[in-house]
Amino acid sequence: MNQIQAVYNGKFDFLDKIKISPLSRAYTFSDSVYEVIPFYNLKIIAFDKHILRLKNSCKALSIAINIDATSEEIMHLIKQCDFKDGYVYYQASRGVDDIRSHIYKESISTETFGYIVEHAFKPKSLKVMFCEDLRWQRCDIKSTSLLGNVMSMNFASEKGCDEVIMHKNDLITEGGASNIFFINNDCVYTPSLSHNILPGITRELLITKIKESGIRVEEGQYTIDDLINAKSIWLTSSTKGLAQVSEILDYKTNLEMDNMLFKKCEEIFKNNFFI
Ligand code: PDD
Predict the structure, then answer these.
(1) Which end of the chain has a smaller Cβ tally under 10 Å, C or N?
(2) CA 138 from chain center: how many Å?
């Protein structure tokens, strides 16, 4: 296996050479935030939006970050790599404690870590299952505290599913690692932004482009029934791109895999992201 390039606290090295303290608050408390920044044909997709979201996540948790240095590190990882398609995973933690303590000392300094992954952006249709959204109440912060997502996605994986669609008391929130869209009556619907979902960058870009093409997009609150009755459902993320849902475990759906409006949205996605 090729050696994977990484960066830890500003110093570049191979991933397997990096040593991290077990008292990193990323390790003990998930006191950290992250980004996944995709690039295709060596072109970074929505770099500024990812950097801004990382800045906002840090701000929400009062984690100090040198965002210019971070931007340069991410770009350097991409420039030096010998593949064309992939993503950079980058995380910022509050730092390393002297002794584990919920309340951190103001004196600790931010710990940053990033590495680069080769990734083929291949459209894939997904089998999903519904699950109760088990997560905390600030899912709009891109924190590494992802136990709710991890538990649900692994449970779904054991049942032969690729992803989950989460709901809070019947209201759809998002996928385990993606945002959700569906089609009914010639309109595209997606749950509106709230503290319960991540403001996905793929979501935002896609909404803008679909609207520009004259297709109606509505953001609101939707239920499991809305999805059962949908003609088309898809999930978006920086690594999945746009992935159509083909099946929902234990439910009979009305999904039309060759739905015309879906095909248009997929085309818009491809023409704007993968060029
Ligand atoms: N996750 N919602 C959740 C819970 C996510 O984890 C993600 C992405 C998204 C989509 O956001 P974006 O379009 O900005 O990638 C929505 C990344 C890919 C991950 O955790 O690996």
Answers:
(1) N
(2) 15
CB of 222 within 8 A of CB of 191? Answer: yes
Query: Do 168 and 62 share a structural domain?
Result: no
109 in the same domain as 13 = yes
Nearest CA to ligand 1 atom 3: 177
The range of the structural domain enclosing residue 254 comes to 125-273
- Write down the catalytic residue from 59, 122, 142, 252: 142
Mutate which of 40, 179, 194, 207 for ligand 1 pocket (most atoms within 8 A of beta carbon): 179
Q: In this predicted model, what pLDDT tens digit does every residue of 42-68 receive, in sequence order? A: 999 999 999 999 999 999 999 999 999
The pLDDT of residue 165 is 98
Tell me if residue 124 is catalytic: no
The predicted model scores a pTM of 0.97
Q: For residue 89, which atom of ligand 1 is closest to its CA?
A: 21
Pairing of strands 217-220, 241-248: unpaired
For the CA of 49, the closest atom of ligand 1 is 14
Residue type, 64: A
Of 54, 88, 118, which residue sits at a domain end?
A: 118
In terms of Cα–Cα distance, which of 255, 222, 6 is closest to 114?
6
Does the pLDDT at position 108 exceed 90? yes
